[in-house]
Amino acid sequence: MLATVDALLPLSLLEAVRNVDTPNDQFDTEYVDELRNKRLGLSDTIYAQIKRHTEAARRGHRTASDEAIALAKLIGRRPDSEAVFRAAGDYMARQSYRTISPVTRKLMRLMPSAMARPLAFRHARKIAARYLGGNVRRVGSFLLLEVPRSITLGTAPGAIGCTYYESAIKQLLRLLIGSIGAVEHVRCSGRGEGSCEWRADWRSFDRTAGLD
Predict the structure, then answer these.
(1) What residues have CB less than 8 Å from 12, skipping those under 6 apart?
(2) What φ, ψ does residue 149 adopt, rounded to 5°?
(3) What is the pTM of this model?
């Protein structure tokens, strides 16, 4: 197991818990104080952890992988764990995408696809390596994300924990190139297949998708 991970990884898990647990209607909002005692994401502990990891991520620091795994296990015990893992992957993709300079992001939107794709691929590879501990490569018309040591593996029933990486790569590609193609979990360490691997349809390319 990796000794450390980028601080953005545990931060993404914490932010997802907070977002999922935050009241989304007026009725719940009236009882926020009561909900704090029932919803983990509204607790002072989560708030303090988010503040600490936000600062660490801002400074580009890394944190112990055991801490991230403990958070993933905590999420894995929730009945809505899949929704939380997907929200965390989405958060990871959005925040890591913002580490690319605004000028480069704009260029990738304006360039012809033949020029934008290689640039997007290079950034996807860098982001996957730094923030997900993964390797991105192209095989034919597909892009493959391999994660040799998944932080979320075995933290929830079945392959629910794996949806974190699925959500992250799908959202990242959407932001980079407008891709909304299918992402398939083709290999899993939990099934004794070595590393975990996701295959994304690299052919899907829609400039009109909601990039931000």
Answers:
(1) 88, 89, 91, 92, 95
(2) -135, 85
(3) 0.86
